[in-house]
Specification:
Helix content is 32%, strand content 22%. It is of the alpha/beta class. α4 (92-103) links the parallel β6 (80-85) and β7 (107-113). It is globular, with a radius of gyration of 16 Å. The chain has 6 helices and 8 strands, in the order ααβαβββββαβαβα. The protein has a domain at 50-160: Metallo-beta-lactamase, Chain A, CATH 3.60.15. A 6-stranded mixed β-sheet has the order 3-4-5-6-7-8. It has a two-stranded parallel ribbon with strand order 1-2. It has helices at 7-10, 13-19, 29-37, 92-103, 121-133, 147-157, and strands at 25-28, 45-48, 52-55, 58-60, 73-77, 80-85, 107-113, 138-142. The longest helix has 13 residues, at 121-133.
Length: 173
């Protein structure tokens, strides 16, 4: 599952294909088109544009966002959905909204990059309030969220904040 075409999210694809040529790779439609044009499309890949069920408890938000082409992974659990973002370029609120409206999955937990490093504290607080209003109970901001934004999210979510980072294990049931 590849969220979007940025190199820090795609650089490992050739290595993965080399060690497991039959691996199934879900790619955002916009990136799959680029790979196909350059002759680098993994042999066993699926292009995802619209919100859709992948298999089992796994869904994609699709990459059909106005602000930026990126898909999020949604895992359906007994207590609600878990949204895993790469960078959240389309906006985490928009991604949660798609999961709920298009997939019918109410998001309980958000994990991943939220691309808020240049966002004002006031706007981060508004985003956190919107997420809580939408029913998000837990959040684990990582990657490109930014330290100041992470601090504001932590303050807003309190016990619902999960500290992430390299090597962090989060059990999803």
């Amino acid at each position: 599952f590849i969220s979007h075409e940025h190199g820090d999210h795609t650089a490992g694809i050739p290595w993965i294909i080399e060690i497991n040529p039959s691996v199934l790779c879900y790619l955002p439609a916009s990136y799959a088109e680029q790979l196909k044009a350059s002759g680098l499309l993994p042999p066993n890949s699926k292009s995802v544009k619209k919100p859709s069920h992948l298999y089992g408890p796994f869904y994609s938000t699709g990459d059909d966002f106005v602000a930026f082409r990126e898909q999020g992974l949604v895992i359906k659990t007994d207590y609600g959905g878990v949204l895993i973002t790469g960078c959240g370029h389309p906006g985490v609120v928009a991604m949660v909204r798609v999961a709920e409206k298009e997939l019918g999955i109410k998001i309980h937990t958000v994990i991943g990059g939220l691309h808020l490093m240049s966002t004002s504290e006031e706007d981060v607080e508004l985003i956190a309030a919107n997420l809580k209003e939408m029913g998000v109970k837990q959040i684990c901001p990582t990657h490109c969220t930014g330290d100041k934004s992470i601090a504001a999210i932590k303050a807003s979510f309190g016990d619902g904040y999960i500290m992430g980072g390299t090597g962090k294990e989060i059990i999803i049931q």
